[in-house]
Design a protein that fits this description.
2 copies of one chain form a homodimer.
Chain A lengths: L9 H4 L1 H4 L13 H13 L3 H12 L4 E3 H4 L7 H13 L3 E6 L2 E6 L1 H11 L8
Antiparallel strand pairs in A: 1-3, 2-3
Helix pairs in contact in A: 4-6
Chain B binds a DNA duplex through helix 4.
Chain lengths: ~130, ~130
DNA sequence: ACACTGTTTTGATAAACGTCAAATCAGCGA
DNA sequence: TCGCTGATTTGACGTTTATCAAAACAGTGT
């Protein structure tokens, strides 16, 4: 529809990103398969460094950040940052691409939106 | 100058979570303190058994569930269930009370709503 | 070809985690 | 009081995790 200037807000409000597959955790009991699929996603963000990495990447101008933009914000070493980025990537929360010397990461907003919807107190405020 | 506030914060609708403390992770970089406070909460739900426990409790009729209502749904032993309940409780996600022989657990919706708001790009303007 | 920078992988280590069996605690009823 | 059931704690075990140093990989420029 309208690809107006609407900021990031749109991406989960519509049913498109959330694929409408999952009622909030508080509305309907999660079955085993859902729980085993979701737990690794929450585990991926259950670390302060990864939480900040994800936030830094998602907030970075242009929607993507080079590794060199990130390492300076942490006390841990480069390999550790690289490890955490890999964890986030394997969970599907971020993705990356090499461009010349640098590797750029960006967030996958759909996954984040899905997690939010699962935790959310109500799903759609329609009516 | 800095009184311009994003009108995003009051998601929780529960009245209890009126912290108004945290913009979504994708809007503003999490600082170290926020990340270190949030990570243990996500860690608490980053386990399939705990995820289902939380969901079962939150969905249970009356808004609370006895431990004996829960154990049957899992393959793990009673002590393990008890351990996971303790983790959820120490994270503040659930609370409990003993009534006679049985111990009843209920979910704390404010904490869940806060996590949802942190992850969520959307602005569910419920009233 | 070489050196240099940015990033990831490997290997090792200490801490944290999930699970169970056994023991313990908390109420209830005979 | 004693025994019974529901629930938690303790102690142990194997697995996973976060971290680092060192090595390796990927591009760029000389």
């Amino acid at each position: 529809m309208s690809k107006q200037v609407l900021p990031i807000v749109d991406l989960a409000g519509t049913g498109q990103a959330g694929q409408a597959c999952c009622a909030p955790l508080v509305c309907e009991p999660l079955n085993v398969a859902e729980a085993e699929e979701l737990a690794p996603l929450f585990k991926a963000i259950a670390d302060p460094v990864r939480l900040r990495l994800l936030s830094l990447i998602a907030c970075h101008e242009g929607g993507e950040a080079c590794v060199c933009d990130l390492t300076g914000a942490f006390e841990v070493t480069g390999p550790t940052i690289s490890h955490h980025l890999k964890v986030l990537r394997q969970a599907g929360l971020i993705d990356c691409e090499r461009r010349g010397t640098w590797v750029y990461y960006w967030a996958n907003p759909g996954v984040l939106a899905r997690l939010s919807a699962i935790l959310g107190p109500r799903v759609t405020a329609t009516t």
